[in-house]
Amino acid sequence: MLHELYPQNLRHDPLAVFRESKTPAALYARQKWMRKKNTKEWQSDFRQVVDYLLSNQKKNGSWGDSLLVTVHRLFGLHLTIRNRTQQTERAIEWALSHDIMRQAKRAISRGSGLIHARDLSNLPFSRGCHDHVLTCSILFLASLFGYASDERVMIAYDILSGLNTGNKEKWCDWSCSNNFLRACIVHPVYRDSKTVKLFVAALKKVQNNDGGWPAPIPFYQTVNALAHLDTNQSDDLLAQAFLKLRRTQNRDGTWGRSQVEWNTFLIVHAIKRKGFLLQTLQGEP
Fold first, then answer.
1. Which residues contact residue 275 at a Cβ distance below 8 angstroms, ignoring those fewer than 6 apart?
2. pTM of this structure
C-alpha cells in the first residue's frame, strides 16, 4: 500500500538546501545522497566540522559538563564520523555515569521542568520534560554507538517502558512519547516491542485526514521515526503522511517554515529509508 500511494515524483529538488551547507546533517546529505565525498570541498568542510565537534572535550568525556551540549556533539559525530571511537566512548560513559536509571525514574515524575524546542535544534527530539528528553537522548546515542546491550541502558529502557505500560498508549504526553519512540527505533530489542506497537496504534487513532497529526505531535520527526519501522501499521501512517509532504513542499524543495534544512533532512532520510527514489534531483546521481 505504501508503494502504491507514494507519488512518483516530488515537485521540487529537496537536496538543494544542503549544497552549500556545512551542518552535520548537510554533510551527511552531501556524502550519502549527493555523492560528494570525494570532492575537495566536501572533505575540507568535513574536517572543519569534525574538528569543531571534537574540540574542547573534557577529560571526563563531556563537553562543558553539560548533558545537553554533549548530546548535541555526539549526534553531530553520529552524522559525520559515525563510527565508535575513544572520544565517543568517553562521552557515552560520562553520560551513563549520571545514574541513568535514577534519571529515568525522575522522568516519570515530570518534576524536572521543560527543555524547549530551541535547545533541541537539529536533534531528532521534541520539546518535553527535561529528564525525559535527556534520558531518551542518552539511550538513543548509546544504542547508536554500540551500547545497546549495556546493562545500564537496558534497565533504563525497561523503566521507561514500564511507564508506558501503565498509560497503555503514551508517556507523559505526545512529545515525550515521540522521544521514547526515537530511542526505541534504534534498539534491536525495543524496536519491535509492545510499547512501540502501542504508540504506533495511538498515532493511527489521531492521524488527521490530511496525513498529519494534531499538535503537539511533531510531524517531521514522527515521519522520520516511523520510517525506521517495517510494519504494515507504520507504513499505512507513512502512506498518508507522504502524500501530505508532496502537497506541502516549499518551492525551494524544503519543508516547513522554520528549521527547514533539518525538516528536509528528516524527510529525505525517511524517503530513502523506505527505498523510494527521488526522481527530481536535476542530474544528481
1. none
2. 0.89
Per residue of the chain (285 residues), what is the pLDDT tens digit?
444 444 456 888 999 999 999 999 999 999 999 999 999 999 999 999 999 999 999 999 999 999 999 999 999 999 999 999 999 999 999 999 876 656 655 555 554 577 788 889 999 998 877 778 888 999 999 999 999 999 999 988 988 887 544 445 555 678 888 899 999 999 999 999 988 998 999 999 999 999 999 988 999 999 999 999 999 999 999 999 998 998 999 999 999 999 999 999 999 999 999 886 444 333 333
